[in-house]
Every structure is written in C-alpha cells, then in structure tokens.
Amino acid sequence: MERRALLCLVLAGCLLAGLVLFILLWAVRGERWAASAFNRHLYNNQGILISGTVLDRNGEVLSTVDEEGDRIYPGDKTCRKATLHVVGDLYGNISTGALKAFAQQLTGYNLIWGAFGAERGSELYLTIDTELNETAYQALDGRKGTVAVYNYQTGEILCLVSSPTYDPLNVPSDLEENDKYEGAYLNRFLSSTFTPGSVFKTVTLAAALEELEDLEDGTWTCSGAVQIGDGTVTCAAAHGEQDIWGALSNSCNVVFGQLAVELGSQTMERYTEKAGLTNSYSIDGISTAKGSFDFTEEASGDLAWAGVGQGKDSVNPCSLMIYMGAIANGGKAAVPRLIQQVDTPGLLPALPRFTHWTKRLIAPDTAETIAEMMVNNVQTAYGTKRFPNMELGAKSGTAEVGGEEKPHAWFAGFLQNEEAPYAFVVLVENGGSGADVAGTVASKVLRAAVGT
Amino acid sequence: MLSRLFFPQEILNTLGDFFQRYQWAMWWYTALVRFVFPILALLILVRAFRGLLRVRHTAEQWGQLALPGGGSIPICHWENILGRAPLADIRLDFPTVSRQHAVLARGEEGEWRITDLGSKGGTLVNGQPVEQSARLNVGDTLSVGGIELLFLPLAREEEERLHNRRRAEGPEPMWPSLLWLTVFQLLAVLQLLIGNLEERGLYPLTLLGLTVVMWVYYGVIRRLGSRGFELETIAFFLSTLSIAVTLSSAPASAPKQLIAVVLGIIFLVALGIWMRDTGRIQKLRWLMAGFAIGLLAITLVLGKTKYGASNWIIFGPFSFQPSEIAKIFYIFAGAAGLERLFRRRNLWLFMVMTGVCLLCLALMSDFGTASIFFITFLVIAFLRSGDFATLSLICAGAVFAGTLTLRFKPYIFHRFASWGHAWEAASTTGYQQTRAMSAAASGGLVGVGPGEGWLEKISAADTDLVFGVLCEEWGLVVGVLAVLCILVLALFATRACRMGRSAFPTIAACAAGSLLVVQTCLNVFGSMDLLPLTGVTFPFVSNGGSAMIASWGLLAFLKAADTRERASFAIGGRGKQNWKGGGRS
Predict the structure, then answer these.
(1) Given this model, what pLDDT does residue B580 score?
(2) Whose CA, among A232, A366, A425, B363, lies 20 to 30 Å from B507?
C-alpha cells in the first residue's frame, strides 16, 4: 500500500516545486510587479507616485505631494523643463526620472520590507543643481542634444539636461507625433548613443602614445586628404606639417586615420574597450547605453574613419564624460551618481553614500600627456577667453551623420581645478561645428558652474 | 439586525476617539505586530509539522506468518495482499506464487479470513483448498502456491515491547501551539479593529469566537481520550487566516464563516466517529455514491450562476455549493474495501460514477472542480489497483479528460488565453492575476498589516485570490506557511499508508490529501499566473461556507488514518476494552 501512495507524493512534489518557483519569481520579479501603476500602496488612482519629495542639491523642492495628496512640481516652467529628465514625469514614461527610477527610495518600498509606511514617503536629494540645469537648458535653446557636468572625484552629477523636453504639468498634446518632440522620453545622456566624431581621437591618441614609439618626436604633413586602402580620408583643410600636439589641436583626420591603421584593428578595439566606451555603467541603478564600434574592416578606409570617430562608431555621452574624468584624474574617475542622500522621516538617519570608482580606463602617464594636450587645444584652438579661470582641457567633435543633415556638434573635456574638478560633455544634435556651437554651450554652462 | 449588533454607536465612538488620540501608538502597533505574526505562525506550526512528520512511528502489528525455513513476516494491516508483486503487503517471492495471490483480512469481530484472488497455484488452509474465502484461525497452516506458512499471533513479549514503544511515541501535546494561536488571534483582533472601524465595526471580535470554539473542541476531544491535535491545529490556524481575510474583505460575512467552522467541526467529529465501524462503511458505499451524484445532479437542476460557474444553490438568504460536499461522498464511495477491489465490476462501477460526476460538473462549466475530481479519481484508481488495472483505468481516465476538454473548449480557451501572459492582458483577462501578484510583492516578507491591503477590494479577492491577500497583508512568510500546511497534511496521508490498518482509511486519506493539494495548487498558482485561474478555493482559507465545511470534513479521512496510539478519535483502540471513551454502539 505504501508504495502506491506514490501518486499522492508526486502531487505533493508538484505543490512544493510550484511554491519554490513562485518564491523565485517573487524574488526576481517582485519589485517589477509592485511597480505597477495600479498598486495602490505606491500609486494613486491616476497611477501617480503617492509619496516622496525630490529635491536638488541645494534643497530646492522639484517635486512633492501636497496636502490633498496630489503630486506637484513647485518650480516654474523653465525649471520643470530643465529638470524633467532627472525628476521624471507623472506617469513614469521617462524611465530614468527619479519618480520612476528611484520610486523605491522615494516611497521606502522594497521587496523585503514591503510597502508598509509608503504613504509617508522620503526626501530624496539629487546631486543636480537646478540653476545650472536651467542655464544648460537655455544654452541649448531648444535644439536637441544633451549637456552634463559631473565631479570626477565624488561622482556627483551637477548638471544633466536632455532635449527635447516638455513641461510635465502641461504635456503637449502632439508629444507622440510632432518631430519636435522626437525621443522626448529619452534621457539622451544616459540612454542614447551617437556618432562621436573627433572627440574619439582622444582614444586613438591614448593607443598611439602607448603602442607607437617616438610618437611625440614625429611630424606629419597633411595635404587635406590621404589614400588608405581603397578609401580616402579627408580633412576640412590642408593642415601642413605638424607634430602630434598640432594634429590633435587641428583635429587632423589624415594623421589620426593613419595612426589608427598603423595601430591595427585589434589594438584599437582593446583601447576602446579599456576606455569604457563599450561598457554600461550603473548610475544609482540606472544602466547607461553601451557604445559600439566596428574596427574589423581593415582593408578599406573604414578603419581609418573609425579611428577618427566616424563610420559605424557610436558612443554614449555618459561613458565619454567618464573617460574625460579619467584623463583629468590620472586614469580613474568616480562613477557618476544622481542621489545625494535619502532622508526617511522617523527612521534611521541617512547612510553616507560612498563614491564608486571605475576601473583603470587609461594609464596614468598617458592620461597626464593627453590632459596636457587637451589643455593645449583650448589655448591654441578653442580660446582661453571663452573659458576663464578654468584650467580647461577639451576636445571638440563635428560628427558627420550622413545625408543632408548637419553634423552633430560635440564638446567634451574637464577642468583641472581643485575647487571644481569637473568633467563635462555637450552634444548638440545636427548643431554644426563642434568647437563653435557645442563649445559655446559648454562655455555658458561651465562659467555658471565655476561661478564666473 | 446582526449588523446593528456589531455597530453599537456609543462604543464605536469611544473606541474611535481613543484610536484617534493615540494614532501614533496605533501606527507603531501595526508596524511591530506585523513582525510578530510570522514568528507566532512558526511557533504554532513547527510543533504540529514535527509531530506529523518527524518520528518513524512504529506500525501496529496484528500477528505473523511463520515461514517454513524459519523467520516470520509481520502482519501490519487489517487487509494484506499476499503475492509476488513488489507492491504486495506480504511479499512471497516464489515462482509458484501469483503476483497478487490472496488477501488476508481481519473482520469486524477480530476474525481473520483468507480470500483467494483466482491464483494459479491455489491457496489451502490446513490442507483444504480455499474456494473463495475461508476463515483462518491462530495455529492454522496456510499454503500459498505450495509455500507453507503458519499463522501465529505475536509473541507476548514482542507485543508488549511494541505496545510500550508505541505508547512512548504518542503525539506531542499541542496545547503550547494552541496558546500561541490564541495570542495570534488576539493580536489580529486588535489590529483589525484599529484598521478600519467605520467599515468593520466590532466584526473583528468574531475571531475571538474561533478562539472559544478551538478550546472547547480541544477540551471535549481530550476528554474523549484522544491526544493527537496536530491536524486540527493546522486547520484552526488556516481557519484563523480565513476569518481574518474575510474580515478584511467582507466583514459582514465573518460570523457566517465562523458558523461554517463550527458546522465543519461537527461534521468532522460525526464522520470520524461514524467511520470507526468499518462494516458500516462497506454497507453504505452505494448510498454515498448516490449522495455524490445526487448533490451534483440537484445543483445541475437548481443551480444558479455565480462568478462564471453555475454551481450555486440559492435558498433565500443562504447560498451554498453542493459540489464542495460532494467531494467527501465521492472519496467515501471511491475508497472501497480491499477484498472487493479485484472484482472487475467494482472498478467499472467506480469509473461510471466518476464519469457521471464529471459530466455534471462539465454541464455546470465548473472546470476547476472537474479537474479536482479527475485527479482524485486517478489517485484512488492507482491506490486501488497498483498494477495492470491501473493502466486501463488511467487510459479510460484520459478518454474522460479528452471528452471533457472538448466539452469545455471555449471556456478553456478563454482561460488559457491569458495564462502565463497575465501582464500583457493586465486590464482584461489578466486583471485579477496581475493585481494579486502586484499586491503579493507589496507585502514584503511580513506584510503591510492585516486589513491594510487594497487587493481585498478586487472581486473574488477572498476566494480565488486569497493567496495574494495573504502575501499582501500577512507577508510572504505566512503565505508560504499556509501552503506548507496543506503540503504537510498530504505528506501525513502518505505516511499513514504504511501504518494504515485497512485499505479504506489509507485510500481515503491519500485521496483527501491529494484533493487538498490539487485544490491548493489550482488556487495559489492560478492567482499567481503559474496555472490558469480556475476559481477553485484554497482549502480552509478561502471565504465560503461550503468550502470551509468540506475542508473540515476531509480532515476526518486523515483522522481515520492516524493509527498512532490513542491519537485519533476516529480510530478504535487495539481491543475494544482499550478505548476509554467508548462510543461504539
């Protein structure tokens, strides 16, 4: 009789197996289940986060819940638009916004503790400076693109603007259709990738400095174009005879194209990976987009073009900014973060937040040399007057995007300033010349950042 | 009238003011007590689980068969199959012995009979061939396929040793668990009172009624001389959760639920005591089969549709689901005595009965209950036959299932449409599941506090989605423990097979255990989108009178298989004189 109870045991086994499966699913997906807009512990009947206050680094309230239980944005229209992508919209469409990405910190919900007391909410201080964001938003002047500034020693992101943006309290009715708002839900800084153009020369340069002997002693002559394999690499003008310092400040495609070919595809790939440009970083739990590069086509001119940041190259602005921080900081930089601190009323005091560091993105000697060369860029090419009292090192980029479209304008770099150890990135989509257009935006934002 | 009783304005106003004034204290009460509930639940259940699963209880022995070459085989049951088959109770591995050769069974008066199962080798008692069955007295020589066996009682010292060992292994006292459960109930009452006084009034006090019922039951059964309370402790724990969930979701039906528990307990005791006489069981099998089919047939004629399935009978203010009670009669009729098993006619009649039941359920569109009946059928069929017959039975079962599937097709398709994809259909067919899952994840390990959830406002929250409410309000720990309770009941049933005296209680216990498990699977995994949502109740926990009565009734089958020394009121002592309480007519 005993063994015939097998079927009964099998059924009991099914129940146990199912229970274990459920617990596993609960552990893995539970937080996503709870983050449903119909979860009344966390969201009101319009699907809006029920509690939690978002503040900037200076304690200015960006979003909170009023006495009637409605979520409000106390700032003016400019403030709301300038901080939209870090604060988030009401309905969680902007996945990188604090109201969506940091909903757990705002409500105090987590899978172990549950939603108990979620209606009381926490105060979440962002690392953002609202005024700096407004400056950057105004400097972009409605053009698509992104601006970010961060402290490469502490990781705090001081400024993060993504455009196009909109007012979360007056959502445009044509948001989904109008080209003007294309990708408005995207945080371009964290979640997008773009053709880098000449800013990528800083990576090719790092490889060349380490792999090629006597690089700094050599000279090159640029006649405006060079035949490489089946293809031709061209410059905007003939730069004539120049050393590597001159080649970088002239942003000479002929020189860097040849260097890339000389280094070979494997070396280029290795240094790009080491620089962290194909990496995804976690910014307080928000994953950044990975860049992608293709150095495989050695025969034609593709490798040369890839070495100057054209062709199939695409880079995420955040990872580029971190690389800039690493150049300024001797090879490693702090990983950016957006949360300054979280205060939960009546419970434990806020824990100190630790700075996380990237792995070594670039050798210390190389970093120092590149940093000097980038400072030289500013002195010889971009103009120190535009960037007073900054000890700025920078590289511009004018990334051809093909067709009739104007190129993307890039400007990325760092301040070697003890008071203001900032790295930054500016991208104006289809903006035109990097040094002019993006450089001007950077100038306005950085002046505000260092307070001159 | 009843509702006014639970809303005495003056007391409510005083209480309301008090809670208002000490709002912060109430907040802290909920904040802390939610951690206390899982701890208490563990304290309550660990003891009961250990009692049911821990020790290898020494089986009862009723005699022995001495082998010619020396040595002997103990007779551990009241009904034993002798044969060469590995599944035989008394295995005689000789080529001349048939796979299932004969049945040795103890009658009501303690007399033993041997029944030949149409064996090739033949069976002889003291040299006389056994035509169909013959009486076997102590000292008789039994010849099975030419193997000579001597039927002997246990040696006196052996009997005493066994008896002492069994006494020492008696069930653990359960009063500590019941005390913890009382604390659990008291804390829950206060928590539910402060949660929502306007809506719930004094209804939470119903839970105290359960406390009283529990201790009265304990006292009475103790008086009757039974000491095993593990099964009831589990049932009372689950019933506590049931009433608490009802108080959260539909406070006004909490007293009704309490009455259902009382009726269920009465049903349990009556059924248990009634089953002590095995002769009665044999005689009334056909009546029971009739009841099962009759209940379903009546539902078919008078049934009203409620929540998709037309399995409700509404009688003025009362509504109940006869199909819940029919399960008990079905198991009763299905778990027949072993000596009749080998008559092919019996098997066919059992199958016909199952077919009729399934047909009735099919016509009611009650897919959940139909699948429960079908799986119970498979379990019983396998337990009864074990061998070749199983195959044909299960094949026949598959045909049934096939026909059923066809019958239910549109309905099943509708259910299966969103199965496993609830989140993609969160506002249509996956509405209930997604809400239940989201709520379950909101509770964390210890829940947001009894009565503090929102899932209770979704329709069928206290029945189909009750597991979601448990996880939300009581936390994952309590939710998982509730499922483990059912699992332990089933494991106990399979253990009982080793110790069972005769076929009926072991088959019935396994069938009841399997039924509880299948129901729990369908309910819990249905609400969490691991199985299609079929609207089956969680035994003991779901709100619903018929389901509660049926769950307690099923417990009687488990009690009847609990052969530990003086553990169960549903089992007589070794001899009539041993059993203190009497009660045998």
Answers:
(1) 32
(2) B363
The span from the CA of B548 to the CA of B264, in Å, is 7
CB contact under 8 A, B454 and A4: no
Identity of the residue in A36, A112, A117 whose CB atom sits nearest the CB atom of B434: A36
Query: Looking at beta carbons, which residues of chain A come within 8 Å of B375?
Result: 11
pLDDT value at A303 more than 80: yes
- Which chain A residues are within 8 Å of B435, Cβ to Cβ? 38
Q: Is A116 on the interface with B (CB under 8 A)?
A: yes
CB-nearest to B382 from A7, A34, A109 is A7
The domains of chain A, with CATH numbers, are: 197-338+355-450 (3.40.710.10)
Phi, psi (deg, nearest 5) at residue A68: -80, -5
The reported pLDDT for the residue numbered B576 is 37
Phi-psi region of B526 (alpha: psi -120 to 50; beta: other; left: phi over 0): alpha
Closest in A7, A14, A114 to B442, CB measured = A114
| Nearest residue to B206 (alpha-carbon basis) of B147, B248, B151 | B248
For residue B339, the model assigns a pLDDT of 47
A274: closest CA of chain B, how far (Å): 40
End-to-end CA distance of chain A: 90
Query: What torsion, rounded to 10 degrees, do the Cα atoms B125, B128, B132, B134 define?
Result: -40
User: Which residues in chain B touch residue A30, judged by CB atoms under 8 angstroms apart?
Assistant: 440-441
Instruction: Say if residues B268 and B554 touch (Cβ distance below 8 Å).
Output: no
Per-residue model confidence as pLDDT tens digits over B22-33: 888 898 999 999
For chain B positions 471-500, those within 8 Å of chain A (CB to CB) are 475-476, 480, 483-484, 486-487, 490-491, 493-494, 497-498, 500
Give strand ranges (E) for B84-196.
90-91, 102-106, 112-116, 123-125, 128-129, 133-136, 141-144, 147-152
Q: How confident is the model at residue A226 (pLDDT cuts 50, 70, 90)?
A: confident
Q: What is the DSSP string of B32-57?
A: HHHHHHHHHHHHHHHHHHHHHHSS-P
Tokens 């008086």 belong to which residue? B223
Nearest in space to B262 (alpha carbons), one of B555, B552, B56: B552
Cβ-contact A445, A159 below 8 angstroms: yes
pLDDT tens-digit map of A393-405: 999 999 988 878 8
Residue-by-residue DSSP string for B182-212: HHHHHHHHHHHHHH-HHHHTTGGGHHHHHHH
- Secondary structure (3-state) at A278: coil
Helix (H), strand (E) at residue A379: none
Structure tokens at B397: 């079962």
3-state DSSP assignment of residue A169 = coil
Beta strand A123-126 with A53-55 is parallel
In the A/B pair of chains, how many CB contacts fall below 8 A?
A: 142
Express the helix, strand and coil content of chain A in percent, nearest 5 each. Answer: 40, 20, 40
Give which of B29, B438, B469, B519 to mutate to test A binding, by max A Cβ within 10 Å.
B438
pTM of the model: 0.85
pLDDT in tens, B288-342: 888 889 988 888 888 777 665 667 777 766 778 888 889 999 988 888 654 455 5
Q: For residue range B34-70, what is the model confidence (pLDDT) as tens digits?
A: 999 999 999 999 999 988 887 556 667 788 888 877 7
A residues 337-376 near B, CB within 8 Å?
none
Instruction: Indicate if the alpha-carbon torsion angle B536, B537, B538, B542 is positive or negative.
Output: positive
Query: Over pLDDT 90: what percentage of chain B?
Result: 33
User: What is d(CA B58, CA B75) in angstroms, rounded to the nearest whole number?
Assistant: 13
Task: Report pLDDT for B335.
Answer: 81
- The percent helix, strand, coil of chain B (3-state, each to 5) is 60, 10, 30
Asked if A114 and B426 come within 8 Å (Cβ–Cβ), the reply is no
